[in-house]
Amino acid sequence: MSLTLKPTVLIIDDSPDVINLLSGLLKTSYKVKAATSGEKGLTIVQNDNAIDLILLDVIMPGLSGFEVCKQLKADANTADIPVIFITAMSDLDDELQGLKLGAVDYITKSVSPAILLARVGNYLKIKAANDFLKDKSEFIKVQITKRSDQLAAIHDIAILLLIALAKTGNQETDKPLQLNTFYVKALAKHLQNHPQFKQFLTEKAIQMTLESRGTHFDPDIMDTFMVLAESFREIAKCYSDNNDLAFNLDF
User: Fold this and answer.
1) Is 120 part of any domain?
2) N or C, which end of the chain is more exposed by having fewer CB within 10 Å?
3) Which helix or strand (DSSP H or E) is residue 74 part of?
4) What is the pLDDT of residue 89?
């Protein structure tokens, strides 16, 4: 529901007199649409995603109000639209059936105008709140996906760094300089639990990498690695509640 536009109420009733009566009560505060059959009502809802609430008669030619409600609740696109039955049927079993089908209320004719307006207003407020929470939830899901992509990128960078370190030698002296394997092994162990790497970061693969990576690398590379390690520590502080980045870098 838009916060700047009037909410839209759809009346589905086979009686033009009832439609005129309800429209007269609602049109000041709401945008009103109407259908004289269940089939027409479903068509309107399916082609208009701006319907905020439905006032629905039970007994109609063709599709009954119960069947209309059942179809609305079975469709994910319309399931969240509140439905209020307004009917001459006052039997408790009928009311129970309507509520079981997913209607939010069941009002028997002749309805008090004040009561009708109060209930319509209340259910529209509830729907507006639910729509807001749904939108926020979708926004949060998008942000979580972005954050997950960022963390995956950090892991990718870490793997590339390990590969670069493993293949780097001292280009000036070409003499072996022992690389502390703790850095490589600790990060590889952590990434074993990551779905992106667990299939190929087996114990055997890690050991082979440690044994075959070569032991030559420029001391300047160690300085670079230490700077990057410090950056990882800072990142980890920002995402201390995220298990994906919960490995310790105690240097």
Assistant:
1) no
2) C
3) helix 65-74
4) 83
